[in-house]
Amino acid sequence: MLIIYTTQITNRLRYAVDTLFEKVTNIPFQLTADINLYQQSDADCRINYSAAKINEAELWIQPHSLLFENNINQQTIECFEWNNLKVFFKTGGDFPFDIFATSFYLITRYEEYLPHTEDEYGRYGHNNSLAFKENFLSLPLINLWQKELLKLIQQKFLQFPIPNSQFRFTPTYDIDIAYSYLHKPLLYNIGSFCKELFTGKWKQLAERAGVLLGFIKDPFVNYDLLDALHEIYNLHPVYFFLVAEKRKLYDKNISPRNKYMQQLIRWHARKYLTGIHPSWQSGDDAAILKNEILLFEGIVNKKITRSRQHYIRMNLPATYRLLTECGITDEYSMGYGSVNGFRASVASQFYWYDLEKDEQTDLMIHPFCYMEANSFFEQHYTAQQAAEELQQYHDIVKFVNGELITIFHNHFITEQKEWIEWRNMYMDFLRKNF
């Protein structure tokens, strides 16, 4: 048993301790402000989270003020190196920094509630973040800090058992464009055919004609390949489908009322976890989001509780509050749509903490760290460079026994000349690691 003493129990402190211990490592704990209970406890491990040391038989972490505040203020942050890791909120005690406050600051995305610049899509720009500025965006820093904390606990409390957490890999897929040519409106295909004819795009024209005449397979239809890969490597993926009723701006999937689209969604929903991929349009209109969720539920005939924002279009706290109101319990957008890395500096799922309301919510956040579209469009990597990047994320997440969540799109994993290397990259990654 682990007991933690503090002079004041706040929502923030309880959340930070619960996230760092019980949620990530399955270590039960007791948090108390009763010093007599703390001193008389027969717990295997004692942590004193207060300004003064109490006795030698404890691990003393001196607090920063953050977890005892109830407002949102610009914080003074000065990073320094400790055990080859970036840390901040320097304090005294047996630990050189307040690991609870630093973890809280990063995992709640505290800085996203402060004034900041947005990128071209109206999202929080990753270059605002402390992780980007201090060059630790590629690290699950909270998990690494926690690993060091557990080492110190084991050294000081030899009899305290540390549970063994397990590395997990969860592949996820965003189905933004289910088909390249098939099942689209006749006028759309005629228009595209004419455009390709007059612009001399002979290869694309031939491919379109071949698919529509039934001579060749639609290049985006690779669901059988993915299914086979999941069977071979015993993987449990999550699929997110874009079901925008209007084809507009960044929403280019075929109509969710198309019977072939519905068949595709139903087939996946019977075999895998599936979720809504809220359209770009829904970011401006709550009614559209609610309609898309109802439409999706009507197709699969069951409640939909998972989601990931199209183009990772999200702003805190508005997006998460709206999703919660619509019945979403598990959210997969915690990452950047502009660069790969750990947006919340963690490779483990966690409950969202609404900073404005200063309370933990029931919305479970599943952070991703790698999306192939970021590698290609934003970072301008070759398939080989992307393979190396993906492998680095795999290795560091496995080192901390976290969960690696990746995003791939079906239209990246094709046999078309421009994408075949990316298809092979993904297959090689699975073959090598699983």
Short description:
Helix content is 37%, strand content 15%. It has helices spanning 11-25, 35-40, 99-107, 130-133, 141-156, 186-199, 202-212, 223-233, 259-271, 286-300, 318-325, 372-378, 383-399, 420-433; strands at residues 2-6, 29-32, 45-49, 59-60, 80-82, 85-87, 168-175, 238-241, 273-276, 306-307, 330-331, 350-354, 359-365, 370-371, 403-409. The strands form four sheets. It has a five-stranded parallel β-sheet.
What does this protein look like?
The protein has three domains: 2-156, no CATH class; 168-180 and 219-433, Alpha-Beta Barrel (TIM Barrel), CATH 3.20.20.370; 185-216. The chain has helices at 11-25, 35-40, 99-107, 130-133, 141-156, 186-199, 202-212, 223-233, 259-271, 286-300, 318-325, 372-378, 383-399, 420-433, and strands at 2-6, 29-32, 45-49, 59-60, 80-82, 85-87, 168-175, 238-241, 273-276, 306-307, 330-331, 350-354, 359-365, 370-371, 403-409. It is an alpha/beta fold and 434 residues long.
